[in-house]
Each structure stands twice: as C-alpha cells, then as structure tokens.
C-alpha cells in the first residue's frame, strides 16, 4: 500500500531551520555535570533495582576504531589500522562489564544490545563473539527470539561470509552506512563505497536470517546535487532495507576536527538542502515507507513502524527504539547510560577510560540526577518525539500538576507553531500534525528550559533542524 506523502511547505521549513537538540535525551548532554561520578552511578543502579516491577535493560557498547576517517563524522572514534588495539580494548571492556553487571539484579533481563562506533566490524567475528559471551555471562539475557541484537556495519570492510558469522553468534539486525553513492560526493567526504559492495552486504544480512536492515543516508554533504541524490535514493529503495535514516549533515568544524577537511563552498546552500530533504521524503513515501519521526522511516511491517503504531516507541541515545521502559547501560569509551532518573557518561578519551578500569573503577566522568522538573519535561518531550501527542490528563496525574498553569511559558512559545499548523492543542491533548513530524525538534524546544543557555554558548553545540 502506498503511504501518503508528507505535506511540505518550503517556506515553513526554511523559517524553522534553526539549531536545536535532537533530543536523544532530556536534559541534553551539555547539561551533564562533572560532579556526577562512579558513586552516583552505583546509587542509581541500586535505586532502580528496588522498583516493584524489575525494569528491563538495554546495552550499548561503543567500539571506537575506524580504519579510515570519514570527514563528515562527528562520532567519538579512533583512526588506526593497528588491529592489535582491538584486543587491548576488549580486555578493558571485559573489566568494565565485570564491574558494572553486578550492580544490576539478575532478574533484570537484557532485551536489547547494540554495538556502535566507530566501526564495530573493525573487530573480527571471533572477537565480537567473545564480547557477546562476556556480556551473556555477566547479564541475564532474554530468549534469542525476543532479543534485539544489532550492529553497525561499514560495507567497505566486511565480507558476506563475515556477515553470516555475525548472524551465527546472535546478531539479528544490522545498520549500514551509505551516506551517498555519488563518487564526487564520496571523494569529498573521504568515503569511497560502491553500490556492489553495499548490495552484497544487504543481501548477506537477509540470507543469514537477520530480521532487519537499516541504511543511513545524509543530505547536505559537499557536491550533492538533486539528480545524483535521486539516483542514490532509487538505488537504496531498490535494495529495500527495512529502515532508512536520512540525516542532515551538521557542519560544526569547531567541534569536530575532521570536518575541517570539508571545503565549505562545496556545501549545498540552504535552499538545496531543503530540496534534497524534500526529494528524500517524497521518494520514501512513494516507495511505501512510514515516517517514524524526524529523519527515520520504516516499512509498515517493520517493528519500528509497529512500535509507533502501538505506542511503544522510545527515543534514547541509540535513536528511535522499540523498547519502552528500559534502562540503558553504556559500555566503552564515551558511552552514555540512562539509569532511572540519572544520566552518566564514560570518559571520552581512551587514556582516561582505560586508566579508571585499570584501577578497578567505573570510568564515569560526568552525568546528572534529574530534578522533578527535568523528569516532567522529559516525559513531555519523549511523548512528542515518539507518539506525536501528549494526553494531558494522564500527564497531570503522573506528575501532580496543572498542565496549562505549569507550562504557561511553553504554551506561549507554541503559539506560532500552532498558527503554522505544526501542532494542535485540544482540551485533552497536544497533537503533532503530519507536517509537524518533520519539525519535532522545534516543537520539543518549546518545553526545554535549558535551551536559551545552550544555544548562546560558543561554539555552537547543535545542528540545524533542516
């Protein structure tokens, strides 16, 4: 069945194209404090163990190594071709796992595991198998049929045989970076990747029995043109991945040094960025993909689309996920955890992360304990970003507030968005319109009490909404 095209008003999108958080958390990472450390993390784990109904767990493991730098990348990664570093890193990870896992009761099932990076397939299938064995030995995993076990793959550095090996050790989902198939764009971002390489890995994921394949694309890259990006979209759609993410390139060279290699006058102008986004949305809608929210799309039968339909969609540091009401444990350098009403982040450099573990300390270097106000606003933003609506009576009962009285300022900030048809306020709920789903960040920003402080800090911390 063909899905309806998302209504797009170019002037409207242009007007709301301002910097803002992606809200993989609220409060966002710039608000984390350096006085939140290992002691606070341990206290958070103990507190969530005492919940009457055990909260399930999601695990994220950060594997930072890449053999080649992609100039657009803003991830925490280490460029090296020395594969011996993988073994040393896994030894430190084993220590972190052994220190972290006992903090969580064994009746708390792991229902989701994601390996990100960096390039996780910098590690061999045998090494990744050892990592999974260590995790399974220390945490209580749900059954293989119910476990979501995903890995990010770079098709340039993996073979179909290795994909089959990864499936054999338990991976049932894969996310492939593509960005753009145009050779001119690939040269500008230092990522040469053929259609044939990519198709072979997509097909290997399917042949190995993996349940879902995601493909990442980026619009706003240097040298991108409508005609060539249309060809990229058609090629990807022909591969029929279960999910597609269309990220807007965020050019922040003061924050991400590799981006200084990008020639700024080769970047598309604001109008071209908008046209590239419109092209992607129209092509995916015509191909039957459901708009999950922001820049994520999925086929109707995919679990992400089903989670959106059934109200169980969640957004965290892994992006949109299908598992609501889970605590997220981040392992590895720079990884972020969300445990109960706390956020924490590991040391962002290998030296600091490794030194803590060598001294049998958890490598937490910052985080925060959420206030009651933080939890309320996080609840509102989570519902807007995932369900596209906030039932007001239920929210008021959960937090003991009068919504209109508490959020007087936020409702005032929402008025222009209401006038532009992005969001509606009815007597019992706030509801995002279809066109508003493209601007969820802007709607959520109305409820962010930290935003003015964050956006006036130099250098800029956030990408633009479009």
Tally of DSSP β-strands: 20
Q: Point out poorly predicted stretches.
A: 454-459
| CATH level-3 fold name of the largest domain | pyruvate-formate lyase- activating enzyme
Strand-residue proportion: 15-25%
Put simply, the count of helices is: 17
Q: What's the CATH H-level superfamily name of the largest domain?
A: tm_1862 like domain
Rg for CA atoms: 22 Å
Helix percent reads 25-40%
What is the averaged pLDDT score?
Answer: 92
N-end to C-end Cα span: 28 Å
Task: Outline the fold blueprint.
Elements (H helix, E strand, L loop, with lengths): L9 H6 L22 H12 L6 E8 L1 E2 L11 E2 L4 H17 L8 E9 L7 H14 L1 E2 L6 E6 L6 H9 L4 E7 L3 H7 L5 H13 L4 E8 L6 H14 L3 E6 L21 H17 L3 E4 L2 E3 L4 H8 L3 E3 L2 E3 L4 E6 L4 E4 L2 E5 L3 H9 L5 E6 L2 H15 L2 E3 H8 L3 H4 L1 H12 L3 E3 L3 E4 L7 H6 L5 H5 L11
Would you give an account of this structure?
It is built from 17 helices and 20 strands. The strands form five sheets. Strands 1, 4, 5, 6, 7, 8, 9, 10, 11 and 14 form a ten-stranded mixed sheet that branches. A three-stranded antiparallel sheet has the order 15-16-17. Helix 3 runs parallel beside helix 4, helix 5 runs parallel beside helix 7 (195-207) and helix 8 (226-239) packs parallel to helix 9 (270-286). The chain has helices at residues 10-15, 38-49, 84-100, 125-138, 160-168, 183-189, 195-207, 226-239, 270-286, 303-310, 350-358, 372-386, 392-399, 403-406, 408-419, 440-445, 451-455, and strands spanning 56-63, 65-66, 78-79, 109-117, 140-141, 148-153, 173-179, 212-219, 243-248, 290-293, 296-298, 314-316, 319-321, 326-331, 336-339, 342-346, 364-369, 389-391, 423-425, 429-432. The protein is α/β, with parallel strands linked by helices. Mean pLDDT is 92; it is low at 454-459.
């Amino acid at each position: 069945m063909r899905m309806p095209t998302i209504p797009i008003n170019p002037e409207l999108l242009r007007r709301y194209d301002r910097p803002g958080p992606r809200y993989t958390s609220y409060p966002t990472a710039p608000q984390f404090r350096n006085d939140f450390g290992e002691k606070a993390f341990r206290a958070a784990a103990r507190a969530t163990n005492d919940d009457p109904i055990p909260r399930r767990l999601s695990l994220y493991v950060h594997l930072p190594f890449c053999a080649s730098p992609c100039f657009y990348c803003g991830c925490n990664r280490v460029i090296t071709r020395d594969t011996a570093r993988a073994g040393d890193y896994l030894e430190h990870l084993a220590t972190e796992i052994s220190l972290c896992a006992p903090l969580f009761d064994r009746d708390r099932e792991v229902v989701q595991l994601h390996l990100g990076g960096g390039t996780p397939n910098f590690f061999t299938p045998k090494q990744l198998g050892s990592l999974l064995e260590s995790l399974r030995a220390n945490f209580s995993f749900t059954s293989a049929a119910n476990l979501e076990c995903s890995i990010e793959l770079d098709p340039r550095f993996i073979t179909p045989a290795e994909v089959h090996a990864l499936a054999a050790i338990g991976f049932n989902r894969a996310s492939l970076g593509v960005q753009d198939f145009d050779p001119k764009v690939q040269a500008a971002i230092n990522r040469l990747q053929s259609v044939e390489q990519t198709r072979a890995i997509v097909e290997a994921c399917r042949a190995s029995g993996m349940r879902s394949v995601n493909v990442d694309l980026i619009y706003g890259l240097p040298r991108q043109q409508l005609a060539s990006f249309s060809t990229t979209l058609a090629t990807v759609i022909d591969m029929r991945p279960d999910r597609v993410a269309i990220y807007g390139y965020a050019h922040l060279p003061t924050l991400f040094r590799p981006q200084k290699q990008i020639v700024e006058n080769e970047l598309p102008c604001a109008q071209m960025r908008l046209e590239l986004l419109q092209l992607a949305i129209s092509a995916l809608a015509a191909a039957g993909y459901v708009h999950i929210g922001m820049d994520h799309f999925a086929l109707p039968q995919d679990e992400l689309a089903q989670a959106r339909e059934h109200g169980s969609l969640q957004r965290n540091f892994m992006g949109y996920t299908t598992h609501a009401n889970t605590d997220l444990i981040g392992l590895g350098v720079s990884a972020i955890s969300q445990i109960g009403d706390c956020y924490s982040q590991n040391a962002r450099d290998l030296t600091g992360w490794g030194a803590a573990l060598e001294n049998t300390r958890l490598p937490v270097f910052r985080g925060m304990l959420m206030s009651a106000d933080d939890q309320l606003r996080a609840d509102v933003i989570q519902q807007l970003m995932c369900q596209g609506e906030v039932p007001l009576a239920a929210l008021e009962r959960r937090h003991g507030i009068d919504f209109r009285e508490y959020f007087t300022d936020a409702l005032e900030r929402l008025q222009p968005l209401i006038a532009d048809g992005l969001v509606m306020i009815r007597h019992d709920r706030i509801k995002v319109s279809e066109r508003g789903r493209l601007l969820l960040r802007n709607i959520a920003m109305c409820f962010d009490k930290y935003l003015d402080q964050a956006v006036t800090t130099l250098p800029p911390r956030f990408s633009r909404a479009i």
